[in-house]
Amino acid sequence: MAQPNPKSISYSSANQENGTILEVKDLKKSHLSNGKKGKLQVLDGIDFSVREGEFVTIIGPSGCGKSTLLNIIAGLESYDSGDVIVKGHRIGAAGPDIVIIFQEDALFPWLTVTGNIEFGLKQKGIPKEERKRIAREYIELVDLSPFANSYVHQLSGGMKQRVAIARGLALNPRILLMDEPFGALDARTREIMQKEIQQIHEKTKKTILFVTHDVREAVSLGDRVILFTHRPAKIKQQYVVDLPRPRDSEDPALVGTINAIMKELKEETSFDTTRGTANRAIELPAQ
Ligand SMILES: Nc1ncnc2c1ncn2[C@@H]1O[C@H](COP(=O)(O)OP(=O)(O)O)[C@@H](O)[C@H]1O
Ligand SMILES: [Mg+2]
Q1: Least distant ligand from the CA of 71
Q2: Residues whose CB is under 5 A from ligand 2 (ion)?
Q3: According to the CATH classification, is domain 23-96+174-287 in 3.40.50.300?
Q4: Which segments of the chain belong to CATH 3.40.50.300?
Q5: Burial bucket for residue 92 (CB in 10 Å: 0-12, 13-18, 19+)
Q6: For the segment 28-87, what is each residue's pLDDT rounded down to a tens digit?
Q7: Ligand 1 contact, 72 CB (< 6 A)
Q8: Is there a contact between 66 and 40 (Cβ–Cβ < 8 Å)?
Q9: What is the pTM assigned to this prediction?
């Protein structure tokens, strides 16, 4: 399939209808427990849908099953029951284009920034000149034009994540999955990347499903925040964040939503899943 001009796809009409692009229906998943008898239930009936162009964040306690969910949507892991439907097709069946970006992305050290972005395009059979043009577009999108010919070891952590984002978007996926993509960055770089991903979303109107364990990040970025319970994860609550961007971190509505989610998350985090009882001794770090 020829790669359409990224300007015509990504920068314009993806959001015209705002129809549903992703449906997760009563999804259940257990992992085989390591060295123990039986299975570890991780997802316990996850149900939600995402509209085209929407930026949805998922937050939940560590180990509740967030990465498992993203891996399932990306087609990297199997599931026990339920459904994951992308644009009306069960995942796997139609091979929808879904890209996942992790905390530490495996860029190819022997390739330049341009080479890394072109790699996947080459796999898709896109001709050389077209590849070069697409790579240039996306390098510009993530503000890395001066580093187009730099190698990975010459880049900072934030720049590497920009390359990963550009590489993912250059494939023109229907959905961009991000699993704690800024989790390994220092606070300042993380803030810059949070602004950057909002601008990228604004320009490309790409559907983004973004996992984080940072409440402020979830509320600052998402059109909607989905809060998971402790494992096995269910959806505890969803919050619509109907605030204009760029968002003011002091906005009382934003702060109010952060506090409400913190309270709910604290309940989940203090739940000791190994004993099945609430353990009030475990506290979240101070805000
Ligand atoms: N492949 C696997 N095999 C066995 N257990 C797993 C596997 N992947 C994850 N787990 C376990 O499943 C639970 C959920 O993991 P994960 O989805 O990574 O959580 P989160 O991303 O919310 O921190 C954890 O207890 C984890 O140890
Ligand atoms: Mg995880």
Answers
A1: 1
A2: 67
A3: yes
A4: 23-96+174-287
A5: exposed
A6: 999 987 666 688 999 999 999 999 999 999 999 999 999 999 999 999 999 999 999 998
A7: no
A8: no
A9: 0.89
